[in-house]
Design goal:
Order of helices and strands: EEEEHEHEEEEHEHHEE
Radius of gyration: 19 Å
Shape: globular
Number of helices: 5
Number of strands: 12
Amino acid sequence: MASFRNGSRGPSKVDRVQPAGSTNLRASASFKSKTSNVRRSSSSSNVRDSVDSVSGRVRVAVRLRPQNAEEMVADADFADCVELQPEFKRLKLRKNNWDSDTYEFDEVLTESASQKRVYEVVAKPVVESVLDGYNGTVMAYGQTGTGKTFTLGRLGDEDTSARGIMVRAMEDILANISRDSDSVTVSYLQLYMETIQDLLNPVNDNIAIVEDPK
């Protein structure tokens, strides 16, 4: 998962890792961050400190979902090739018993991380920046089955603790705006096979993709 704040103040299953849906909390200014924050752990602490100080940069978190029952049976004879080190904000991918790659992130969220924890770490700072008037985007990226829809769009009808980022963000926005001076508009679109569908109005199932000449 990646969060964008424009000028903010302020052999096992590798596909369980989720770092493509997105929710654009406000579309006003262009994104100007100069750095991305997925990097090898070999970076020096000075480099990391300088990256952390960049205002409005992309922040990246990785979340590992729990294995389901089918995966647990299928992986019974295999060692886990994904090792999380949340205290160091690192993820290690083992190629084999003697070789591995290590990556650092802004946040590392384990299988036991709650939806509330994910929202507070990844999205709440972006929502706060949006309320201050800045552009903000939260994006979930990963293979099919890694938990993007659960993380972003879970409604939590039966269990409120399962609510995803979109519902929690909207709750925070509505709780902090003025009904007299503020307005909120919502679009819910799906882009699939170069076709845009309006999920709030299914009649609009083939919206044209156009390019602005400017």
